[in-house]
Every structure is written in C-alpha cells, then in structure tokens.
Amino acid sequence: MGVYFLTVNFIPLLRKSELPNVCVIASLAAIANQRSMGSLTYSVSKAATVHLAKLLAGRLHPMNIRVNTICPGIFPSEMTGTTAGKHSYDINHQAERAAKRCTSGRPGRPEEMVAPVLLLSSPGGAYMNCALLTVDGGRLMGVSINDGIRMPEDTYTDEILG
C-alpha cells in the first residue's frame, strides 16, 4: 500500500518535473522462488509490488510519468544482516551462504544498487517505462530448487540438505 499511496500523493510534483519517473524497489523474491531467503508472504507481497508498478506505469503513462521496477537480490540490509553501525550492516550467515549461489558469488554492494536507480531516474533511462531490472549478481540463474547443478554443500542454506 505504501508504494501506491506515496506515488499517488507525489503526482502533482511529478507532473511539474522535466523528467518525471518513479523507481519502485521490490525483490527478486517477486519473480523467483527463494527457498533460502524468503517467506511465502514476503514473496507474494513483492510480486504484488511488481504488478502494482506495472499498473501505475499504465495509469501514469498519459501524464508522461514513467514507472520502473528494480528487483534486487541479496544486499546488506536490515533483513539480510546485523547492524554494524548507523546505516551499515554485516551480512548474516544465511544470506552470505545464499549469496554464494550468485554468479558473482557475493552479496551486492550499495553502489551496485544506486547505479540502476540513477540510470532509471536520469535522461539515460528516459526511454524506459514499465521496465523490470534484476540487480542480483546472477542469483536469478540459480534460485530454482531443482536447478540440476551440483554446488558445494556450503552454498545451500537449508538445514536439511537433500
């Protein structure tokens, strides 16, 4: 509900902007099964956020307001870490192990989230509307429970390995 009400309440200001756009941050859990990092309710709420962004893009299109979505993978945050100081987090053990299954083999860095947001908000992203970007270090490639690829045991986060 927050994405909807925040966006709708900012429409008067967005209409005054030279390059009006909204960048919605959802989660990779919205589009893929994340057996290690998410719950059913979290995944469903993020899928709803992605769909809401699509609906807002269509509704705001006549006003020339663009709406795009980013689905991040594992980044340092309150959900994936422990507090290391003001606005700083250390990745928890479960998230660290899950991040090993990314192509990059590690969690994302803050600048790797900032850059796509800046792209979508800049003239360089002005031709993008209703886009969905995955910023996940390649995690989407390996999130399937039955991905068929044998990985080292320490990359699996389930307590019972099968």
Automatic annotation (TrEMBL):
- Matching InterPro entries: NAD(P)-bd_dom_sf, Sc_DH/Rdtase_CS, SDR_fam, Sec_Metab_Biosynth_SDR
What Pfam families does this protein map onto? adh_short_C2
Question: Which top-level group of life is the source organism from?
Answer: Eukaryota
Please provide the record's keywords in A-Z order. Answer: NADP, Oxidoreductase
Q: Belongs to which family?
A: Belongs to the short-chain dehydrogenases/reductases (SDR) family.
Task: Tell me what this protein is called.
Answer: Uncharacterized protein
Species annotation: Sporothrix stenoceras
